[in-house]
């Protein structure tokens, strides 16, 4: 199902099923299906759980921070993952089944800040708020970097959540677009 207009950055809550899996992802996942169950919360508390109890770290932040709680389910397979991802522009370490140990940073940006003109236009048309998530991920061990732009796009007359990914390793880049149906 296409994404309703009530779903726009920053509201990603719902179950999103990956459709039309690109070749590169199919090679990684085989014949698997992937879904994201996203919930979110907005808080003024310090989003770093390790800092609880540290003097001066339990203060409220100046601006509210949205944290996405994402349960990723891959069927069949044992690549399921679950995590909390604050959208505050700060680096955070994660260990994910498919990608290994990575450093990730998420922040909101205006669609006008998207450097690729074609992508900027698609996101501007599909995202009434003109806001998207800019995700940067880095795997030191395997030597790759990824930039992911989360937003909404109109595809064949329907609106979908998309994640446009550019993965770079050894100066070679692979681009893909993941398109998600809204389930509920």
Topology:
Layout (H helix, E strand, L loop, with lengths): L13 E6 L3 H7 L3 E13 L14 E16 L5 E7 L4 E5 L3 E11 L6 H10 L4 E9 L4 E12 L2 E12 L2 E11 L2
Antiparallel strand pairs: 1-2, 1-10, 2-3, 3-4, 5-6, 6-7, 7-8, 8-9, 9-10
Structure description:
The chain has 184 residues and is mainly beta. It has one domain: Lipocalin. It contains 2 helices and 10 strands, in the order βαβββββαββββ. It has helices at residues 23-29, 117-126, and strands at residues 14-19, 33-45, 60-75, 81-87, 92-96, 100-110, 131-139, 144-155, 158-169, 172-182. Strand 9 and strand 10 form a beta hairpin. It starts with 13 loop residues before the first strand and ends with a strand. Mean pLDDT is 84; it is low at 51-56.
List the main descriptive attributes of the protein structure presented here.
184 residues; mainly beta; Lipocalin; 2 helices; 9% helix; Lipocalin-like domain-containing protein; Pericyclase_pydY-like
